[in-house]
Design goal:
- The chain is of the alpha+beta class.
- Helix content is about 20%, strand content about 10%.
- Strand 1 and strand 2 form a beta hairpin.
- It is globular and about 45 Å long.
- It starts with a helix and ends with a helix.
Length: about 90
């Protein structure tokens, strides 16, 4: 959990963390919460590719064409994202 919050690698996880209110900061250091735009796809018949692609600001053409494979990026830390394939 500490690693996930300390170094989130998937764009969706990053967006979720940026949407969490911070009570540990005083008012002058708080930033506006970030919303993840768009709509969640219909999962009964999902589109090809990554289900987060239409809402991801890092999406590439491959993201709408091919589902990313789940792979280990660190011991005990797995991610399914084409962005990680490019790095």
């Amino acid at each position: 959990v500490e690693e996930l919050f300390g170094d989130p690698r998937h764009p969706y996880t990053q967006g979720l963390i940026r949407s969490i209110p911070r009570i540990d900061l005083d008012a002058e250091h708080k930033t506006r919460l970030e919303a993840i735009g768009g709509s969640v796809p219909i999962l009964i018949n999902p589109p090809p590719g990554c289900r987060f692609a239409p809402r991801c600001k890092h999406a590439m053409s491959i993201c709408t064409e091919q589902e990313p494979r789940l792979r280990e990026i660190a011991p005990g830390h797995r991610m399914a994202c084409h962005l990680g394939d490019a790095s």
